[in-house]
Amino acid sequence: MPRTPEMLRALRHRNYRLWAGADFLSVAGTWMQVLGVNWLLLSITGSATSLGFGLFLQSLPTVLLAFAGGSLADRLPARPLLLTTQALHGLLAAVLTGIALGGADGVWPVYAVALLGGVVSALDGPALGRFGAEVVGPDDLPNALALGSVISSGGRILGMGAAGVLIPVVGTGALFALNALSFAVVMAAIAAMRRGELHPLPRAEAQEAGIAAGLRYIGGTRWLLVLLGMAFVLGALGRNYQVTMAAMSNGPLGAGAAGYGVLSVVFAVGAVVGGLYAASRPRLTFPILFAAAGLTSVGQAFSGVMPGLLSFAVVLLPIAAGAVVLDTTVSTRAQLGTAAQMRGRVLAAQSMVGAASGAVGGPLLGMLSDTAGPRAALVLAGVVTSAVTVLAAVALARTLGHRGIPAAARAFGHRGIPAAPARVLGRRGAAEAPAPGRRGAPRSPQDLQGGSPEGRTTVKHAPSPVSV
């Protein structure tokens, strides 16, 4: 049997092949439903404001309930929990099918489904990420996360393209029905996995479980706070390209809707390139993290002064690639460097940061584009994110007691995996973690999706009611 290329090494695991295949179809189904809901709401109201309110309803539970979901993920067996939540997602998609086929004449039933879907996503998101780590184990988790971003980008392209073809032919109800079936595919993949080939993570015991214990752990893990802080700022000002691409297309570039479509395709291609690069790396280290952060930040500043559509697209491609490398590396470092029994709550913190950065950054960039112009908004955001990247690099080095990022990276072990904080997590079954740089530093693994598609080995969420 031919040897699997190193870039695809996670696919050596049968369980991951099931996971990846189901994920691709699942993401495609999710994006079909996203566009279907967009069209349904617009056909009912004729207002883009209705789409924004739907997004708010779907995102709010993540901010409020993600830590509760993380606590559940750290205490309960992953497979039964995920089978239950995926069934609930499928049921909600089926309800949307009935609403669409029944001739919806009001938005509130759609909003109710969006809110309930957000609640289920908030509760099952950390469990998805935790179970994704059990599918491949710690050594292949970085590769699985990178391949997951490629799969998500491919599924998004397929789903959006299929929706564009199917909506005029069969209507939105068929899209929702197909998405409901995609949840069934995920459930079948989970049920078909071989238990003996999983890499179980230890579950939290009573004294180290709960939201308060998770907050204490994250609050005491300073290097993780640095990463989350940088991820928030860069996510708010550097990830909301749906806003700035639209503003540039309709404004300074004069490219209109067609230009916006071209830029969206370029961004998706860049995301695939970034995912393939991350997958090709044997390990994703802090130098790679800050190089990607610098590339996206400086590139964003330069994109604001590009004179035409072609030059803007040329700069956008590496920005998209760098963003995927950055997000994948942040997720990898956060998952591999934290205690396994805290993994669900760490993932919940990442989800909350992602949701909050989108909620803050989208309106902020939109307001900047309206008041100062899209070019000024991009330049200003790029300068701010560049400064934050430098400050985060310095803060990380100081947190680790080193003067430079290469030295700081060495403190995270020969595999680039940070040691957990040197503290006792609980009185039973928890040992004191070794200090950074010592042999025997923990190497346990974590999907974040979000996506947003970002940060998880799979990203089957409840679909957002609007495109982001």
From TrEMBL:
Keyword Transport attached: yes
TM ranges: 21-42, 48-69, 81-104, 173-193, 214-237, 257-277, 284-302, 308-326, 346-365, 377-397
Entry-linked PANTHER family: INTEGRAL MEMBRANE EFFLUX PROTEIN-RELATED, STAPHYLOFERRIN A TRANSPORTER
InterPro entries registered for this protein in UniProt: MFS_trans_sf, TM_effector
SUPFAM superfamilies documented for this protein: MFS general substrate transporter
Location, primary (coarse class): membrane
Signal peptide bounds: none
Region Disordered, annotated ranges: 423-468
Protein name: Major facilitator transporter
Localization per record: Cell membrane
Entry GO terms, CC: plasma membrane
